[in-house]
Amino acid sequence: MAAAAAAAAVGGPQPPQPELPAPGLSLDKAATAAHLKAALSRPDNRAGAEELQALLERVLSAERPLTAAADGEEAAAAGGGGGPGAAEEEALEWCKCLLAGGGGYDEFCAAVRAYDPAALCGLVWTANFVAYRCRTCGISPCMSLCAECFHQGDHTGHDFNMFRSQAGGACDCGDSNVMRESGFCKRHQIKSSSNIPCVPKDLLMMSEFVLPRFIFCLIQYLREGYNEPAADVPSEKDLNKVLQLLEPQISFLEDLTKMGGAMRSVLTQVLTNQQNYKDLTSGLGENACAKKSHEKYLIALKSSGLTYPEDKLVYGVQEPSAGTSTLAVQGFAGAAGTFGQLDSSDEEDQDGSQGLGKRKRVKLSSSTKDQSIMDVLKHKSFLEELLFWTIKYEFPQKMVTFLLNMLPDQEYKVAFTKTFVQHYAFIMKTLKKSHESDTMSNRIVHISVQLFSNEELARQVTEECQLLDIMVTVLLYMMESCLIKSELQDEENSLHVVVNCGEALLKNNTYWPLVSDFINILSHQSVAKRFLEDHGLLVTWMNFVSFFQGMNLNKRELNEHVEFESQTYYAAFAAELEACAQPMWGLLSHCKVRETQEYTRNVVRYCLEALQDWFDAINFVDEPAPNQVTFHLPLHRYYAMFLSKAVKCQELDLDSVLPDQEMLMKLMIHPLQIQASLAEIHSNMWVRNGLQIKGQAMTYVQSHFCNSMIDPDIYLLQVCASRLDPDYFISSVFERFKVVDLLTMASQHQNTVLDAEHERSMLEGALTFLVILLSLRLHLGMSDDEILRAEMVAQLCMNDRTHSSLLDLIPENPNPKSGIIPGSYSFESVLSAVADFKAPVFEPGGSMQQGMYTPKAEVWDQEFDPVMVILRTVYRRDVQSAMDRYTAFLKQSGKFPGNPWPPYKKRTPLHPSYKGLMRLLHCKTLHIVLFTLLYKILMDHQNLSEHVLCMVLYLIELGLENSAEEESDEEASVCGPERCHDSWFPGSNLVSNMRHFINYVRVRVPETAPEVKRDSLASTSSDSLSSLQNSGTAQVFSLVAERRKKFQEIINRSSSEANQVVRPKTSSKWSAPGSAPQLTTAILEIKESILSLLIKLHHKLSGKQNSYYPPWLDDIEILIQPEIPKYNHGDGITAVERILLKAALQSRMNKRIIEEICRKVTPPVPPKKITAAEKKTLDKEERRQKARERQQKLLAEFASRQKSFMETAMDVDSPENDIPMEITTAEPQVSEAVYDCVICGQSGPSSEDRPTGLVVLLQASSVLGQCRDNIEPKKLPITEEEQIYPWDTCAAVHDVRLSLLQRYFKDSSCLLAVSIGWEGGVYVQTCGHTLHIDCHKSYMESLRNDQVLQGFSVDKGEFTCPLCRQFANSVLPCYPGSNVESNLWQRPSNKSIQDLIKEVEELQGRPGAFPVSISSETNLSKEMESVMKDIKNTTQKKYRDYSKTPGSPDNDFLFMYSVARTNLELELIHRGGNLCSGGASTAGKRSCLNQLFHVLALHMRLYSIDSEYNPWRKLTQLVEEVNSQQGNEEQQLEVPILYHDVTSLLLIQILMMPQPLRKDHFTCIVKVLFTLLYTQALVALSVKCNEEDRSAWKHTGALKKNTCDAEKSYEVLLSFVISELSKGKLYHEEGTQECAMVSPIAWSPESMEKYLQDFCLPFLRITSLLQHHLFGEDLPSCQEEEEFSVLSSCLGLLPTFYQTEHPFISASCLDWPVPAFDIISQWCFEINSFTERHAEQGKALLIQESRWKLPHLLQLPENYNTIFQYYHRKTCSVCTKVPKDPAVCLVCGTFVCLKGLCCKQQSYCECVLHSQNCGAGTGIFLLINASVIIIIRGHRFCLWGSVYLDAHGEEDRDLRRGKPLYICKERYKVLEQQWISHTFDHINKRWGPHYNGL
Q: Are 1128 and 1138 in contact, with CB atoms under 8 Å apart?
């Protein structure tokens, strides 16, 4: 407080009331506030106002600790103890008190909130917030809703999605400008202004006085804290420091905005009131602080390059000094000059240092038209200056949120928007210089999208504040800073400048906030219309677009590979799409109707002007410069798209907007150059330019770019082709594609511009281009729906697609208002018309499929369009894929068996404006090319492919389809200007030219060609070959010359002096003199017409003479109804037949000539050639046939050899359908088990010195511990109330039992009475392959030295099975033993049970009676020990050590038999929890239990149990009464035998026996243990029932006690048990708390029998499994209800003769070794003596729940949203934060922070830690923010996939699409199955290490 007082003393006049001592201060504040409020309420309130002003002056100046530190010691002030902090808090307290006017601040807030007319939500959020967008309800595409408003509104059936906000946003609920009212939520539906009472005047009176001072104070703060950053060091640190200090003040303002409408309107008044601002900030008056602060403000303005209008005096002096003369062009001087000058020098230095500036930047002088836009700012209100500082400080988040929170106030919204526009240029300047441009961009867009999405507002600002002028000017200004000279065409003299794509501005996309705002406002019709009407703006805009024309020029590297592949092309494509194409689509969307024709004319006019300027600037005449290409021609594309719109929607006459021929010729050059370059790139001619050039070619056609790039280009070429001379156009195409020289009839030629290896693919490219050009109708008359359908069919034909990838691949009109919005009605309806949905399928172990769409059969039949597919493929392989799928369809539907050719598809009719395009098909040049190519193909010249033929036929067919009708006039129209063709064709119509015979052709050939040798008899040698360029004056035909001539004619028509421009014909470019052999002339005899060539081609393709027979001779009908389905699909033969039929249809002459040709028996063409080729094909066929047979044989052999491997390998993937690999010793005929080693391939027995082992995977498992006793799986909690407690899991129950026993009994005895391993038990599984242990060691060594990164860690002993590649981590030695002996052991003996019991006891007593004595260390015993070590190390120590004395041998003993128990129990679970299915189950064949038992038995026998304590004695002998007094001594007791777990006893007994075990010993042990089990069942039953039942049973049983079968009657035994136990205190405490345990059922004999059987079944199941593994006996299958009897007879408990009695009684299995009643009473005595002292515990230990249900994962809700909404905002219970990556465990429901450092413990992140605690190393987590599941297994993890799919059967990883997701039960079942069967390691392939960081 002292600090406050001291500061107050400095600041201004003291207030009148006296200072109170510190304690009373708060009281004083309230009193003062009340006093002031009263004073101000009086009618004459001047005194009160003055008093308040003085108080505020004092309080608020105390809040400025920065004044002292203005000279740069902020650090001292900021850290200067409590001083400043305390003062600030004090000031805030004062403000709160004053606002409340003496009352409590909280009550004041509540009071104000009551007057909130909340019609708008306006909730502001920052990045990463989860919001919703509903396209059905949105008017603006940017509309968004907060989760609360979304869920409270009704959006069922709408097209909505959830999204993570990138830049932040605000909720639009309630704003009818942005969304439809039907979508408002319940809170904002009410138009509420009417029913809210008026705000009482005195409530907010104080606020109106206090807030201006408060805001002014904030502004002073900002002024003082700002220091202009030094030139070199960015000063973010200083700025952040100031902002941190201001945090509480800004938060206070933010809280005020949240008080609702009433407070917001006060704030609006304060912020926009100009008088207030003037009074407070003018810096006049005597206050020194205020003066200083005003100065700082002016300095800041100035340093930002802005003028303050009244400040001309100070500023004017400096103007001349900066030397503006250089820049002062067109009256553009003054401040702008200085600014421009400084700016340029400054930036150039910066960039020079970064090494970008190899190419000098260019400065433009005159483009920016209105300098005031860039440089003048005048602030008239607090709001304006606040925004200024917000920009200066680079948009601090808090300030942005405050400014946006105010937006629901309408008046504020308008004022703020105007202020924002006023500062727009300044914002972009700051952004350009910013070092954090990404964050800043996001914040800017966060604001602007709220302002400009509103059409009304946008219109208002456009009209009042010249928003469009400002935006275009600023865009120009931004791009001007990074211009360089264009190197296109004429490098030296070019005047054109382009943007440099290597600059940060483009590379980092810094311009996107600007462009996105621009696109946003152009989406409003009213704004767009202003733009299109304003000629000045259009000129400027075209000027802007031309900066991108020709950017990122590629020059073909001809010598060596480029050193550095630049990646600037990303920036170039992004810039063209965002800065040029998207505004274009925005403008186009408003040119849809006839009334808008004027707009199109404007755009086209200025576009053409800009293009003309461009051609002049780059010095372009008629030839493009060789070896360079740019993919960026935005001016061409603007022109093309507006033309297309004009014809399609506005009914404009195309010719009225087209330029003259000369301009059209120029226009076509560059787009054509791109098409040719695409072919060159795909022919690998640009390979030295690196991969990036391929990247450009792919991006150019890629789905997001194609409709702004390749489509307009091709359309523009179509327009040019339809208006230019066709011969000129065709020859230009072949010249551009560099294949002119190939088009000769000579068999050899020279190509001066192309290497031979590229010729074929370039020719294919040229023909394909022509086919696309002539058959594509995207802009030539297709409707939007037809386009959508064609696009969709093309994508589906390439591959089956998911719904989302289709949406992504189909180029939508990029402007959101275009109509074809993804997900719109037309999309879904077209999709259902052309495709069938394939639901996702799941094979266990197969990959997770997604729901796919596949084309319907009729689509393949009628709509498959190879042309569209070629146009849209990014990768060439997709074209092949489409053809393969088409072929498969034809085979499957029986339409065509062979390899089909791409089908010919009928086209939609051409729009009349483009009819001229078809003239290309009817020009002689094309016909000559087609004729030549047909001839060459027939003659087998090199470099021609089937693809070429296919395209040639396609073009002929197109010509026939589009021929002129009138054929009669043909002959007359021959005479014309086209003299040069006379030797070729008479007219230009394809139909008549087809039949024209060409006899002789003069060709120029190299001297070495075969034609020359036979020159003397040229006229007779009909087989000699031929060519196209005739030497001889009249008959020379050269494409190049032809093109030149046409060009000359066109030019001459338009201007006479352009002659000298045309280069001479023999320009060096076309012939390289001296480099090749001399050309001579030869004359070839051809005597063919196109028709005759086609017929011969038919013979050639079919391989038979005279194969073509005109079909109409048989069936005249064909000519009447030509559409014959048999011609639709087929190969080349079909295509030729189809063409000949069409030719015959078109003219009678053709029909007659075809018949004539067919009648002449055609002589073999060149006989030598054909036979050679035929022979070749015949040979080929024969060879192929032989190869096929050989292959079959090999395969069969290989198959039989590999059969066993295949079976096992299959098994890894699908644990269902298995073939057994018997390794168990079951076949009696083999003397000794033989194993194959999969490494060395030898087979033999396992021996002591060279043991063989099984490849096994050891893993710790807690699956058993997750069993519960109820069938319904637990649900995943999705509300705070639902929680899961693990008390009822199997693991928990067993834990409690063990600790209870350990409390009262001797530790060593406890550890024998139970099993562990329910949690962290070791499960052993194998793939069934064996290997020598020494081979395995060398295999591991080689893995260790292998440098390749594996998915597993060799150091931890992990490897993959060398044969089947299954994951493994240990080898389990196979015990050497012969099967014969095991057979002997299985013979039943007739010894009595008593003898057997004795034998068992003796054998157990013999220590280590193993054939191998442990002392002699053999390789085998070493391996046994090492594998035991592995088994121990598999699980954590806490799951091994349960003894009270750590490391006691009892621990190991318990652990070892529990391993056996775990494996048996898990196998039981894999079989479904019972053994009804019988047989060897899947787990059985893979089982390694036999080997595991040997290893365990060997180690168990090292620990012999002291014979005193051996439970076997207690079970089989009556003990003398000596021990009775033991109970009195205070030593700990043994565990009573009735508390022992019988299954554990079984395993102990068996593992203590010498191996291999004899069958009769096994049966003996089982019989003895069954008696104990049965007694336990009886005891448990007696405890379960109530007193009356007990006495009744005691009575009935006692009566039968003396019958002969008393020992096998459960009634007798039960009554005896009850009477024995009644002697103790077990039944005594039947207190109230016991009633809960009493079962309500009335016990009938049936229900008691069922209870006893259920109690015993688990033991019988485990025992039967054990017997199956030890002795290889099959398990019988049975019904569930007879499981007990079948298992007991299988185990030999049932006497064999026992089949007669009808109702089965479990007691008949009993076979007592000693008199039953004696032994029972002995057992009961132990219990009684314990219950003497601990009756309750004694009872709890007796009731064991042994019926566990199968384990399950948690049940998940149907809809993913329920999980997401609950968990993504839930706080973590450990660190109490909301995790960045929340995850939830699907086994137990625990909520964890994935990767969160907050919950890290000893370098383990929380997920890894949890996976160890919950699943002993296996964790299954659902990642809330990604909807995917990850599996952690030990030190590795993998992404498993998602179990939630959307309506189209697709995953939505990372929730990118945000569509509703629903549970996929099949997938979840697969996941659960993999968890239970422990097969994650085998089935999931992509594992990686997690380094404990998850």
A: no
Tell me which H or E stretch contains 268.
helix 261-272
Token pair for 91: 């000031």
The model's pLDDT over 889-943, given as tens digits with 9 standing for 90+, comes to 999 998 888 889 999 888 888 999 999 999 999 998 999 999 999 999 988 887 7
pLDDT tens figures, 1728-1764: 888 888 878 888 887 776 678 899 999 999 999 999 9
Nearest of 99, 48, 77, 435 to residue 234 by alpha carbon: 435
Are 834 and 859 contacting, i.e. CB atoms less than 8 angstroms apart?
A: yes
Supply angle C-alpha 936, 937, 939, rounded to 5: 65
Instruction: Among 321-335, 508-522, 1214-1228, 1871-1885, name the one with the lowest average pLDDT.
Output: 321-335
For the cut 60, the answer to whether the pLDDT of residue 766 exceeds it is yes
Q: How far apart are CA 32 and CA 132, in angstroms?
A: 48
Give the tens place of pLDDT for each residue, 144-168: 999 989 998 989 888 888 988 888 8
Three-class DSSP category at 689 = helix
Please name the residue ranges forming H helices in 1517-1671. Answer: 1542-1551, 1559-1584, 1587-1599, 1610-1621, 1645-1671
pLDDT at 1526 over 80: no
Tell me the C-alpha distance between 384 and 465, whole Å.
15
- The model's pTM is 0.81
Q: Cα(340)–Cα(476) distance, rounded to whole angstroms?
A: 13
State the Cα–Cα distance between residues 909 and 1644, nearest whole angstrom. 88
pLDDT of residue 978: 35
Burial 851-877 (b: 16+ CB within 10 A, else e): bbbbbbeebbbebbbbbbbbbbbbeee
The interaxial angle of helices 410-422 and 437-452, nearest 10 deg, is 130
Alpha helices in 324-409 (DSSP H): 335-354, 371-375, 382-392, 397-405
Instruction: Write out the DSSP string of 1516-1534.
Output: HSPPPGGGGGGGGSSSPBP
Query: Tokens 């109509």 map to which residue?
Result: 819
Q: How far apart are CA 636 and CA 619, in angstroms?
A: 17
Residue for token digits 């729906």? 785
How long is the chain?
Answer: 1894
> What span, in angstroms and rounded, lies between the C-alpha atoms of 1752 and 1473?
12
Select the more confidently predicted residue: 84 or 473: 473
pLDDT tops 90 at residue 1824: yes
Mean pLDDT over all residues of the chain? 78
Say whether pLDDT at 698 is over 90: yes
Q: Are 1023 and 1166 in contact (CB under 8 A)?
A: yes
With contact defined as beta carbons under 8 Å apart, do 482 and 500 qualify? yes
Write the CB contacts of 510 (distance below 8 Å, at least 6 apart in sequence). Answer: 431, 432, 437, 441, 478, 504
Measured distance CA(535)–CA(369) in Å, rounded: 14
Strands 1252-1261, 1321-1332: pairing kind: antiparallel
Contact 1820, 1276 (CB under 8 A): no
Write the burial class of residue 1312 (CB in 10 Å: 0-12 exposed, 13-18 middle, 19+ buried).
buried
CA distances for 1782 relative to 554, 1212, 1601, 1806, 1894, angstroms: 48, 33, 66, 11, 11
- Whether residue 197 is preceded by a cis peptide bond, meaning omega within 30 degrees of 0, is no
The phi and psi torsions of 618 (rounded to 5 degrees) equal -90, 0
* 537/543 Cα distance (integer angstroms): 10
How many CB atoms are located within 10 Å of the residue 332 CB? 18
Rounded distance between C-alpha atoms, residue 1831 and residue 1840, angstroms: 6
- pLDDT value at residue 885: 95
Characterise 1672 by phi-psi region: left (phi > 0), alpha (psi -120 to 50), beta (else): left
Q: What is the pLDDT of residues 178-223, one digit of tens each?
A: 888 888 988 887 765 556 667 777 777 777 777 887 888 888 888 8
